[in-house]
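User: Thanks for the earlier help. One more: N-acetylglucosaminyltransferase. Can you show the sequence and predicted structure together?

Assistant: Of course, both are below.
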Amino acid sequence: MVLLDVLLYIFVAVVSIQVFYFVFFFGKFAFLKHKKETPGNIPVSVVICAKNEAENLKKFLPSVINQDYPNFQIVLINDASYDDTFEVMEEFANKHNNIKLVNVVNNEAFWANKKYALTLGIKAAKHNHLLFTDADCKPLSKHWITEMSSCFNQTKSIVLGYGAYAKIKNSFLNKLIRFETFITAVQYFSFAKLGIPYMGVGRNLAYTKETFFNTNGFMDHMYIRSGDDDLFINQTATAQNTDICFTPDSFTESIPKKTYKDWKIQKRRHITTANHYKAKHKVLLAVFYVSQVLFWALATILLIPLFKWQLVLALILFRNLVQVLVFNKASKKLNENDLIFYLPLLELFLIGFQLSIFIKNLISKPKHWK
């Protein structure tokens, strides 16, 4: 009984930590009222790096070309593709005079490194304000550039956006992928509003050339295959220079993975970069994840022998109710409302999935960005 008493005290502490994160961290974004920014119509270069993306460019590039914005350039970077990617880019460039092509061949020093290709593309961009997305992404409105660029001002040189994944009916994997994307967005939006921005996603991200070169671009982490988005933001973003954009017209949408194996490979690559975050970010993120694991583990351990089950059940319901209230508000902002009904199930699956990736990455490291 003494052991169970100790576990109960730990459980109370864990529930307190979880509720604190939901209310004081994630609530910062969930209950935030969006302030409408005035469009500045500043010149913008949209940067898209593609490796073997011929078909996706045909499908999604028109949604960028057809943006309702007075002055923008599109920089298309062919990162040493071995399909028809560059030929497709040339076809678009021949029809639209605002497209700039950058054809990257493999460099021995930076073999298969997306950051090298992106650096060349950024150098080629003629405008100071840069907006990034991927070849398999599409803006969800013709006002994407307008919305994202409106957040730039004299002090804000970095803008974090939301890159959603397309919905697939009757697919639990799709819900899990979208849930992980939603949770990640709530975290990086919330941290940014608290003045401790730590990451963004390359599917929908903006910053200035000046900011990029003033911080030596990707040089501090060029040797790490992934992290052209989150590691750059982690080293560069501050409370003063970073803003977030979450209007529906600012969203992009990408093609989600269709199998657990493909998604696991993708997430393994993404998660390796977290080891290189600043110490304060790693601590804050680790405390939340560990408290998640302990919450469900201790709840199970205490409920099996029905040890003070009324109190334990009350704590479980209280924590989950706070979580639902906060995430429901956030999901409405990001148009992910359908996920809330499956919240406990998705959370448990995601915890297990992330734990398996962590163990796998201890054994071997992913090598390439594509």
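User: Great, one quick takeaway?

Assistant: The CA atoms of residues 46 and 197 lie 23 Å apart.
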